[in-house]
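Researcher: I'd like a candidate sequence for this fold, 284 residues long. If you have to choose between options at a position, lean toward the conservative one.
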């Protein structure tokens, strides 16, 4: 992919993220009043939810804080705004800088905008449309989540010096893997947790997959730092750890302990990644 083609992709990503921000803004006008109306179907159905998100961070905070759907909504909103802002900054700083890894970082950031799909669940409670739309939307969201995480892995092997042609095969393999996961995972469209996440099967297995990708991606950047004798890649590895941790928190929270640390990790992690990659490739 040439520099101009990559920049066109960045512009398309910015446009998509902007649409997602508009969607969540429009949906918020409809949904947020339902959180307050104790007689609404939305409020009553949400109150029936007992299964809370599963994560180490949430397990610690849920002991002290009750669920709050305003916090869940805020987490979704900051993910969309962050995704748009992140893509604008990436385009601004890398418009004329050739950094192969930044394409895959951008794909990860764009994937966060797909979290707006989760709002189809409260909208379903308001308008009672077919559950087919929920299943299809959930499959799209699952694909975006896994492909986004896999893209960070692609960025790590790209920095390690893998040939561009081989990286294309890696990306194709990741697309197939994400599609297989999306199609094969059982989805319970009638149940979701208090973080407005659809209940899916094999949850522990998929958390294990994300953990493996997290470890291998981080280790790969550390190996690159050693092979190239560049401390910049160490900071990139730290940034990867921060963005994945922040993403995990924002995807699995149902109280006000999640939004602030989650978005802070995403911001500082992305800043670490982009500034160090820009500096590294500026001198190449």
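Model: Candidate sequence:
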């Amino acid at each position: 992919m040439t520099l101009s083609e990559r920049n066109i992709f960045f512009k398309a990503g910015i446009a998509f993220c902007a649409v997602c921000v508009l969607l969540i803004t429009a949906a918020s006008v409809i949904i947020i009043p339902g959180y307050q109306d104790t007689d609404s179907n939305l409020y009553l159905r949400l109150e029936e939810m007992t299964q809370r998100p599963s994560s180490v961070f949430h397990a610690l905070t849920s002991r002290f804080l009750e669920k709050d759907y305003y916090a869940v909504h805020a987490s979704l909103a900051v993910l969309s705004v962050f995704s748009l802002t992140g893509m604008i900054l990436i385009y601004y700083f890398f418009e004329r800088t050739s950094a192969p890894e930044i394409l895959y970082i951008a794909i990860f950031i764009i994937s966060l905008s797909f979290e707006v799909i989760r709002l189809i669940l409260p909208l379903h409670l308001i308008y009672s449309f077919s559950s087919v739309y929920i299943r299809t939307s959930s499959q799209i969201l699952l694909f975006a989540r896994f492909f986004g995480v896999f893209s960070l892995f692609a960025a790590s092997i790209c920095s390690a010096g893998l040939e561009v042609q081989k990286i294309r095969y890696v990306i194709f393999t990741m697309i197939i893997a994400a599609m297989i996961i999306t199609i094969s995972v059982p989805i319970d469209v009638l149940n979701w947790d208090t973080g407005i996440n659809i209940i899916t099967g094999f949850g522990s297995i998929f958390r294990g997959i994300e953990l493996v990708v997290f470890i291998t991606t981080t280790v790969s950047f550390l190996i690159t730092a050693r092979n190239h004798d560049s401390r910049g890649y160490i900071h990139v590895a730290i940034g990867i750890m921060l963005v994945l941790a922040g993403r995990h928190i924002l995807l699995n929270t149902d109280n006000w302990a999640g939004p602030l640390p989650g978005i802070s990790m995403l911001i500082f992690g992305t800043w670490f990644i982009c500034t160090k990659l820009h500096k590294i490739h500026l001198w190449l």
